[in-house]
Specification:
The complex is a heterodimer of chains A (about 100) and B (about 550).
Chain A (H helix, E strand, L loop, with lengths): L47 H5 L4 H4 L11 H24 L4
Chain B lengths: L5 H20 L12 H6 L6 H12 L2 H14 L6 H26 L4 H9 L2 H32 L7 H22 L2 H29 L2 H14 L14 H17 L1 H8 L4 H10 L1 H11 L1 H7 L5 E2 L6 E2 L3 H9 L2 H39 L5 H25 L5 H13 L2 H4 L10 H21 L14 E3 L10 E3 H22 L41
Helix pairs in contact in B: 1-8, 1-9, 1-17, 3-9, 3-12, 3-17, 4-7, 4-15, 4-17, 5-11, 5-13, 5-14, 6-7, 7-17, 7-18, 7-19, 8-18, 9-17, 10-15, 11-19, 12-17, 15-16, 16-17, 17-18, 19-22, 21-22
The chains are: A mainly alpha (about 100), B mainly alpha (about 550).
């Protein structure tokens, strides 16, 4: 349905620096993905941390100690946002394709 | 009376007109050579970088529902309404894991909708049709919910009337304008407007969370006022903390809503419009800024308690419209010019997601109903045209929802939509990882999940609105014959049955050697990135392929 690559600016980059099967241009009727599978990293399991921790209500379902007047229930759950950001950032950096 | 709110109305109208103008101009923003293509109209050319994606997806996921209904829930029920925070934390790692794969496979095959993917993955047009219809039906009440957000603001400004038509006229006008510029500019319109919307919202909320606690005696006072209100109320489920009976509800609702959120067609549309995998992955670290905003917005509900806000009356005699508490809080505490900005932020906040949702629903209709069943050889230009018209029809449907149904429980409408869309989880989300499920089993599982979900929703009464059925999505476990007052989120139970049926039937159908559909994808497709070439499936070959530039 779509014309190949026309819509994306910046796709006419130099060949894949990883260099493996790169310089095969596109006339091939069923082109092969050049990028090597990068999603199998065990670091991805870390992402289950921010999925599970915010669901453990006994961790945060109490009033004290308060922080700036916020009961634990509210400030700790807001703090879990940081846990989520940290985890996705770390996993992204660790699984990023080099080069 | 509206004359008392003149300043607010003028500022609201000016900002509304500004974004409407932007909506029309957006057609020329990052303009392609040829707009008559669904990739351009419906996905903004699949070219959005990090910043645009941040504003677009943020403006897409955090809707008027955020600004109006979540604080209304905290105002009414307390801690249980705070589920929105864990919900929007959980969703990002899930997108990081799952939806990135959908981006890759869609990039390779030119998919526009999740149903496109299911069609190719499982070789089943019927399953794809069910996924598409589910998406459209789930999106309709969600668009309607956006209208409720605008309506709450208009009501507070006194723009209301006695007859049904007079009360809804401003919304009908607003939506007609929205429909016109969405028709012209496609996804570029909400992408451009999102910059204004999100900037306004961040300003309003930052001011609100500094200024209002200062005026109301500090955060400690605000939480104590909420405590006092819930202690005094007779309702068993409320409180500033969870009680033993609503914790399962809280957890299942947060998880179920997160799973539902990224299955919604409009979330997928927003994400497929980004230009590569890195843009998505980096945004999963940046988008939670909106979750912090959402958590703080939720607490506006408690500020309304501390400020002694009384909600305006609802549509029916004797009921109250809790959705008006945040607009009323702003109006009571802020000078009227700033209240006007805040109201505009909410109003525009409703337009961005409404536009994206109608585009997503229109794309589903075009790709999976029109092209599949009505006109197989539709050209890209015809596809774009059909989508534009379908987006108009979807908006008319959403307005009809609001005019003819009771908008009081807008959040429940959305929760019902969530139950429905969750039933696409096995085919769409698990389908990205495994093709183990048989297509017939997925169809049966979908039917079982929908059936159970609808039955459970039907069984739920609502004490506040005195309705016997469809009163919410908290299912009392005692109706399963268990001796407990605990409740659970319907969607998660329904999708569990869905998975169970799909698994058992897969084993059965495989034992009976029932034919499976062909899988049009390969393993590498799920990791493909921007620089990888597209595959063009034979049945979707455009009539005149125009190779524009060599692919490296």
């Amino acid at each position: 349905m779509s014309e190949p690559e026309s819509a994306n600016p910046g796709t006419a980059d130099p060949p894949d620096p990883a260099g493996t099967a790169a310089s095969t241009p596109a006339p091939d009727p069923v082109p092969v993905a050049v990028s090597k599978a990068g999603d199998r990293s065990p670091w991805n399991w870390l992402l289950f941390l921010p999925i599970l921790v915010p669901l453990l209500t006994p961790l945060f379902n109490q009033d004290t100690p308060r922080l700036f007047g916020f009961p634990v229930f509210y400030w700790l759950q807001l703090a879990f946002i940081l846990l989520g950001v940290t985890t996705t950032t770390v996993v992204y950096q660790l699984t990023k394709r080099r080069g | 009376m509206w004359r008392d709110h003149l300043t607010e109305i003028i500022i609201f109208t000016l900002l509304f007109l500004l974004v409407s103008g932007m909506g029309f101009v957006a057609a020329r923003w990052r303009a392609p050579k040829d707009m008559a293509h669904l990739d351009e109209w419906g996905l903004g050319g699949r070219s959005f970088g990090g910043w645009i994606t941040w504003f677009l997806v943020g403006g897409d996921l955090y809707t008027a529902y955020t600004f109006v209904a979540v604080p209304a829930l905290l105002f009414g029920a307390g801690a249980a309404g705070f589920f929105a925070v864990p919900y929007t934390i959980i969703v990002y790692p899930l997108i990081f894991l799952v939806v990135v794969r959908l981006w890759s496979v869609s990039h390779r095959h030119g998919f526009v909708t999740p149903a496109d993917f299911v069609r190719t993955r499982f070789g089943s047009p019927l399953l794809a049709l069910l996924i598409a219809i589910t998406g459209i039906v789930a999106t309709m009440p969600y668009i309607a919910l956006q209208l409720v957000g605008i309506e709450a603001v208009l009501k507070t400004m006194g723009v209301t009337g006695e007859s049904t038509i007079a009360r809804h006229l401003p919304i009908i006008v607003a939506f007609a304008i929205l429909a016109a510029y969405t028709y012209q500019s496609g996804l570029r319109a909400p992408a451009l407007i999102a910059f204004v919307k999100d900037t306004l919202i961040y300003i309003v909320i930052l001011v609100a969370i500094v200024y209002l606690p200062y005026k109301l005696g500090g955060w400690g006072e605000i939480f104590d006022a909420a405590d006092a209100k819930f202690d005094a109320s007779a309702a068993p489920g409320d409180g500033a903390l969870l009680n033993p009976n609503n914790q399962i509800q809280y957890v299942t609702l947060a998880l179920g809503s997160a799973l539902a959120l990224f299955l919604y067609p409009h979330s997928i549309t927003g994400i497929l419009a980004s230009k590569n995998r890195d843009v998505i992955k980096r945004n999963m670290s940046a988008l939670p800024a909106y979750s912090l905003l959402l958590g703080l917005i939720a607490l506006l509900g408690y500020m309304a308690i501390a400020a002694g806000v009384t909600p305006l009356p609802g549509a029916t005699e004797g009921s109250v419209d809790n959705n008006t508490v945040v607009p009323l809080l702003f109006e009571q505490q802020f000078p009227s010019w700033f209240a006007g900005i805040a109201f505009a932020a909410i109003g525009i906040g409703a337009l961005v997601p409404a536009a994206i949702m109608s585009i997503a629903a229109a794309n589903l209709f075009t790709r999976n109903i029109y092209k599949e069943y009505l006109k197989r050889d539709a050209s890209p230009a015809q596809e774009a045209n059909v989508s534009k018209i379908a987006s108009l029809v979807v908006k008319v449907g959403a307005v009809a929802c609001i005019v003819f149904l009771d908008p009081q429980f807008s959040i429940d409408l959305q929760l019902i939509g969530g139950v429905i869309i969750l039933q696409t989880l096995p085919a769409v989300a698990l389908g990205l990882y495994t093709r183990w499920f048989h297509r017939g089993a997925l169809i049966a599982g979908w039917a079982a999940g929908m059936g159970l979900g609808m039955w459970m929703l039907y069984q739920i009464p609502n004490a506040a609105s005195k309705r016997a059925h469809f009163g919410g999505s908290n299912f009392p476990l005692e109706k399963f014959g268990l001796d407990t007052p605990k409740t659970i989120y319907v969607g998660l139970v329904a999708v569990a049955l869905n998975l169970l049926v799909a698994a058992i039937l897969t084993l059965l159908l495989r034992a009976l050697r029932v034919t499976e559909g062909p899988d049009g994808t390969t393993r590498d497709d799920y990791f493909a990135d921007e620089t990888d070439p597209r595959k063009i499936p034979t049945q979707r070959q455009p009539p005149t392929p125009t190779p524009t530039e060599p692919v490296a």
